[in-house]
Fold each of these.
Amino acid sequence: MLISVNTFWTILLIVHGLLAIALLGALTHQAMAVLMPVRQSAGGFVTRFRAVPAAGYATAVCVLWILTFLMGAWIYTKYRIYVRIPIEQAGYWKTQGFFELKEHAATLGLGLLPIYWYIWKNVHDPEYDGVRKSITALLAFICWFNFLVGHVLNNVRGFGS
Amino acid sequence: MNTTITTPTTSTASPRARAATSSLAASAKFKTFAVVFGISVPVMYFLCEWFNLPLFTFHPATNRVEFWWAPARSGEGPTMYWYGWTVLSLLVGSVFGLLATLLPESVTRKIPLSLIWLLPVLALIPLAYSLMPFWTK
């Protein structure tokens, strides 16, 4: 075997994390652009951060959400035994509770993807302006929440620890 | 230099001038499917979690998969139900979405779009509540 079992699962965890970072960046750009649209001149960093072609992110966000979800679901099998049990034994109950909430939020976000994609592909239709803002903001919130919870959990007990 | 830039967001003329480019994005049936799927999944996921209704149970220590709900087996480690809840929610959401495409557009157009984001937000409240043992230990 080229790599150890521990290394294999650690690589998968890192890939999961990298996909999450890409998703986080895309969704944050898009959410900022739709919630605080740039109407005037290019200014500082924040203005430029908002001044992205938001509609062009939709397909990438869907693909990244699905890939991140699948990678997370894969490593979850090992997490359940090698991470969760020691976390519970150490008494980090709230940390584990937030992980449970993360898994719920990830599935709820998955259910939003088809309509999210549709309303961004119909960006010309003002009928969807309100729901486009709400869904994008919700997905961005879930993504940030899940990323931070995953990050803290990795600090508490990442693979190989 | 104060350069005027075109806003890339929803409120500018530039993106609005373009109609949906792919056939799927222009399809009323896909819209109906997506709306009903988006509404059904959070409701179904909440029901699955609240009443513990997984399509299957996964035993990660032995890689055993059992149909529907199954208890942990002695000496075989914990069980996982999340996969079963998720798959069942997505399947039911897909079936409802497909069935909704058979309805006339005059009916499906009346479904409030706000439900799509409201229901997942509302579902998170009881889902967080169901985790009370973790918050109070």
Amino acid sequence: MKSLRNMTGIYHLIKVQGIVLLLLFSVSNQTFAHPVAEPIHVSFVVSRTSEPYQKVVAGVQAALFNNHYSFSEIHQSAINDIENALVTADIIVTVGAGAAAQVMSLNPTVKVIASLITDSAFASLAEKHYGSTKAAFSAGVSLICLDQPVQRSIKLAKALIPEARSAGLMLGPASHQNAGMLSSQVKKAGMVSEIVKVSATENPILIIEPVIKKSDIFIPVPDSRLINIATAKWILQLSYRYRVPVIAYSQAYLNGGALAAIYSSPENVGRQTADLIIEGKRISDNGGRYRPAYFSVEFNSSVAAYLGVDLKPKQYYLDWLGAE
Amino acid sequence: MFNSHQLFSLLLCLFAVPNISVASSVITEDDLFGELHLVSSVTHLEQRIDESPAAVTIIDRRTIEASAAVDVVDLFRLVPGFRVYYVNANYPGVTYHALGDSNPRRLEVKVDGRSVYESIYSSVQWTTLGVELQDIDFIEVVRGANAPADGSNAFLASINIVTKSPLLDSGLSMRSQIGNDGIRNGSVAYSGKLGEINHRTTLRYRSNDGFDDFSGMYKGSMRSVSLEDDAEAVTFGFRGLWTPNAKDSVELQFGINNSDIGIGKQYYVQREIDYDYQHLNWSRINSDGSKYEFVFYHNKFDIVDDQDSLTFYQVLPLVLEADFLSADDIDALLLLPDKLIVEPQRTALSERWDVEFRGTFRAWDNIRGVYCAGARRDKVRSNDLFDMDDTASENSYRGCINLEWNAADNLVFNGGFVSEVRDDHEDLNSFRLAANYHFADNQTLRLAFNQGYRAPTLLESNQATFVRYDENLVLAADVVSADDIDAERLLSSEIGYLGSFFQDSLNVDVRLFRESMTSVIGERREPYADFDDRQLNVRDNTDYADIYGLEWQVQYRPSQRFLVHANYSFVDLSQISIYRLTPPIELRQESNTNPRHLGSVLVNYVTETDLSLSAMLNYQSTIYHRVDEDNASYARLDLKAAKSWQVKNTHAQLSLTVQNVGDQYRERYFYNQFKTRVILGMQLDF
């Protein structure tokens, strides 16, 4: 089994290197396909200048580091600059929901990639400014979803605790309607789902505790800040009490006491945004929704020791999840 | 600068972003990347240690379990610069860097955010805390002044002991310890539910016989001291948690403690303390992730020291021996009728009510902050500390703000300010500025500057300990406070380094510091006009202290089974004390009253069969004391072995702790001999 894994790893390495070479080759081709040495101008509109936003911008720039691209960065508050960029830039990359809101409100005709934005925030903005998500895509706006599919968390949970029979899921108001779909995904992973729907008006401990108590693993699905903050502390404390591992969605959750976290890091987002820019043809006409292609997985070894979970090397789980 | 159009756009955006997140079905990146308010730190913000404005040592559960500590104070030996000592066997003192007298009073000590520092003896009565090692989730020690967040009593450092949440355990836990020196400790804790309230309720009992009686040579002569320093304490504590909805959580704590301890200096009295507290903490999370917190608490210490009562005729022969009495004075004294002048009990009552409101906020892109407004009332009463008045009280009000500015990815600035207003006193304004520069991956340099003030306590500013026949005749005098005692002032600066290596398994913390204290409150010896110009101690701003030093701590945890914690501090203290202001003025050099070197090492290994083996070595260099106090340096080795079992739903642990393996050493006084202690412990969690 071990040697098979090693071989899988080598195969994976060759595959990754192959893709990188292929990408380099295709970039070169693209380069030569543009005889006019006019660089493609990418204009970033950022919601904030703080770390995650800057990391996305830096990630894109690092991946496109050659003289065929030029860059500018605008804060979402600089409306004049944004309006100019909508005319002069080849591609607008919005980083964050606030920036996307600002750009989409100006009905851009240039190609737009909305990054570091969740599916629900994009849908809300698309409906507001274009009438529907589909209309936004038709207008050349592309979305790189920030929220990782819960399915990946379920899959990771099963990889970490193969003997787990029941998976508890906490759903906030933003994902109440997904209960049926998530339940079937849990079932598909070979477990029984225990779903708790929380709301801002209910006693969170009272409703979460019974579910954690009868679960072998617990997955809080990210929701609004209020729900996330109001439940995280209690979930982590109850998981300690009942020795139930938590598969979380952020580094902060992991540091607080979750066993593992799977999430889109700003670097992951930057990398996928760069991929999308490189594959320029795909966004030439219509935009579209792009599920997060990359993700980060981290583990809390102290919690693993407390729970008696024998952690395998990270690559094992990345392979299991089919990461590139 | 912004023009009006840009400013309008900016304001529009500030409102536009929240609009996205308020709809319950919409999640933004802020929801995914945002802080979770799991722990608050130095400034009451959720901050990483390498972005905190002060040096911090966290003593977590793993460290507590690995340590060979038996009492909570033993844990502070693991903190660089902290000195733990025993004035009496059951009257420990804890201080940081300097000023370690019988009542060390320049640390703020909190339990779950409630100050346990009491104002009548200006110190922490550690036996009344009622917190056992098993109750603690973690301890956060801020090494350095922390007045902007914890108030003026966080003058040198602050300690926050965070106890376990009622949600962490379930069911019944029983613990017991038995050892030599008459150690008999036991506790029962139950975590469960009362309706919608999750609670942790505890009952504890502790007793010991203190140090052995002393009989031996001291300074060339045979000395015998009978030490009546035993203790017995019973504590009941309740911590309840209620979360009526997702936004609000309410924690209620209350408890009572009865302690009976022998205290004294060769001559001992039995002190009985009745202590009770009530503590309410309400917090609300707002939809933008900010938080409001309201904290109220009340502490009450009722202290009774048994002492020998004295009548006037019993003390008269001593009074008549005084050489300043004239023949007429003697005749007058002899005519006075007998009466009780020293009551059989010395009583002291100390009460504190404190209320504080805190709120966190985020401004612009990179600025976070927390503000607070609070009020406090202290009230003390004693039949011998405040002369004729018996009581003293004080109201104080405070406002504070702490800001964190992430100026760049690798640069964080912190600023904090607190203003304290007290009845009939000058306002006190303390502040702190700090910059944390992440100059390489997982490596940070911190520069910090602090100006802090510590207000004199009620006892310090109001003490007048006289033995009177009546309001006109003082028979004896001990201490009186000067009329115009100022607040103590601290100016400190530091350069700190934090490094984390090998995927966080090795953490290094180095602090180079200078602390200058002026107007330090002490006692000087003066003739006192109201006491026939006889000598007594006048409490006043007597001392000046200047400290340079270096301290470091290294924590190495290569795996869950192995742990090494080491710390060391070098403190170069220059302290000058005014001993007498009456000419000829006499100054005293007190620079050697603090150990220059302190250090400890804790090594723990947990075998695959869950046998935990620990060794903890502490070193303290020589201290110079004046009278009857011991100067010798010591190295103390503590060992511990603990074995755990899980039988169905019951967790059992048996432990053997040996404190101070080998020869005895002396704690503060020559007669406080810390001999080898052997403690057998057992715990059952059902």
